[in-house]
Structures are given as C-alpha cells and as structure tokens.
Amino acid sequence: MPLRSLSLQLYSVRHALDEDVARTVERVAAIGYTQVEASYKLMSAGPETLDAIRANGLTAPTMTSPLFDVDLDDVFAKATELGASAVIESYLPEQYWTSLDDIAKTADRLNAAAAKAADHGLRVGYHNHWWEIDQSFEEGLTALESLEARLDPRIVFELDAYWVAVGGQDVPSYVAKLADRVAFLHLKDGPVNRDNIEQKPAGQGTLPFPRIIAAAPKLEAGAVEFDEYDGDIFDGIAQAFAYLNPQVER
Questions:
Q1: Each residue's pLDDT tens digit, 56-68
Q2: 86-89 and 221-224 beta bridge pairing
Q3: Fewer Cβ close by (within 10 Å): the C or N end of the chain?
Q4: What do you get for the CA distance between the two ends of the chain, in Å?
Q5: What does the alpha-carbon distance between residue 243 and residue 239 come to, in Å, rounded to a whole number?
Q6: Which CATH number belongs to the domain containing residue 241 in this structure?
C-alpha cells in the first residue's frame, strides 16, 4: 500500500525555527511538503507557527505533546486550532519503562488522556524510541507490546521505524504485529545505531521502506524526521522528500 500522505516533523528544523519561524516554514513548503507535524511547545510560543502554516497552505494531521502533568484542555484546544486529528505523546523517557507496573501506570494515564481527547473529537497516540522496544517484561513481548495490550482501543501508534530497528526488531514484521494501531510512521534512515548525528534521509540507509509502509494498512501519514543531521538540514529533508513523495498515493 502506498503512503496516503507525507508530513515533516518540525522538530527536524527546530534550530531554524528558533531563528525565523515564518521563513523556515516557507522553506519547508517550497521543498514540496504540504503537511507538517507541529508541537504543543511551538503552538504555545505564540501565533507565529500557526500563522506560517496557514500562510503556506499547509495542514497538520498530528500534533506532538506531553500528555502527563500538563493542561490537557489547553493541549487539545491547540490541537483543534491546528486542525490535527491526533495528539501524540512523543517522549516518555526510560524511567517510565523499568517494570511491568510502570507500563500499567503509563497505560492508565494514556487511557485517561484518550477519554478526554475524545470529548474534543481527537485521538491520542504514542511515539516510541528504542527503549520501549529492546526491553521485555513479559515473555515474547517487547515493552511496547505490553503497553499496547493495556491501551484503550482508540489509542493509535506513531511508530518510529528507525528506533524499532535500533531496538533489535525486524521493522516490517514488527509494524505488521501492531498494524491495527499504526496510524502514523516516523521515517528516517541510517546505520541503525543510537548516534543521532549519523541519521540519514529515508532511502539512504538500511531500512526497507516499501515493505515497512506496506505492513501498515491503516497508515494515515508518514512523517520525515531527524533527531540530528550532519549537514544542511534543509538538504536532508529535501532528499527524504524526493525519495518518499513518489510513494504517496495520487
């Protein structure tokens, strides 16, 4: 199955955004992106991000945000203003993943957030790193799979394909196992290690993206993302776009 749509996670260009929000979003649009993934942090900093997104005719299917110890009403209000359909918890550090009890507590909190999101017409999602993948507290299951088994069925996953590989899994097989929840994918490439500076544009590393995408029949959007990039980030996101955009269904 081809990609339905392609976004850019604006975290990739965060340093440029710090300098000039309007110009940065304009450059993203000039590459050819029609969608972006914004964050609650950006949306809370002032109207500049939303103004720039609208001025360049972009949409935002997702917004990332902390979902613990935050004003959820404000989070969901900003997601609604952005036009997002889902709010993604994008970073729960390793201290949340030390035991099965930790995982159960995280599931409870995500489920509560999902119930509140539904009142706003939104969904909640979860985005992984490697530590949810390379740990196991139940036989035969990764920690992320243990979380999945405890989640409200309305909660979706935004799987980061690269971190799934770093966690030691065959990515297409792992995506297929969680396919009922995989609504979004983060798409970056590289040598499959934890050194962020070695990340590469999709298609320039070891990940089999056509097979990964095909393993997620409920996929709504892929998002180009870099944690770091050893080069001109705009060149990096342009190369990723050139590789992935032809895979978007027309």
A1: 999 999 999 999 9
A2: unpaired
A3: C
A4: 12
A5: 6
A6: 3.20.20.150
